[in-house]
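Regression test case RT-17, inverse folding.

Input:
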């Protein structure tokens, strides 16, 4: 999964992998690649414009059960 920040500042809390438990902070023009299976939680304190690139078929697991915000199959939005 790739996070590319266009405007603003994005923080990504990660757990596992070589960083252990850490926060990655990205500004405009910066990118982070989160490996498959690594726990991550993107957050921002102000508005951020970003591009998220992920492989087809990736399911957003989030912290809770599937609901009206979770798409069971790939769908163009």
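Golden output:
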């Amino acid at each position: 999964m790739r996070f590319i920040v266009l405007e603003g500042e994005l923080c990504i809390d990660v757990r596992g992998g070589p960083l252990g438990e850490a926060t990655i902070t990205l500004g405009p023009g910066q990118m982070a690649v989160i490996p498959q299976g690594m726990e991550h939680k993107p957050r921002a304190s102000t508005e951020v414009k970003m591009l998220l690139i992920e492989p087809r078929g990736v399911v957003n697991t989030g912290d809770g059960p599937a609901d009206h915000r979770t798409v069971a199959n790939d769908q163009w939005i």
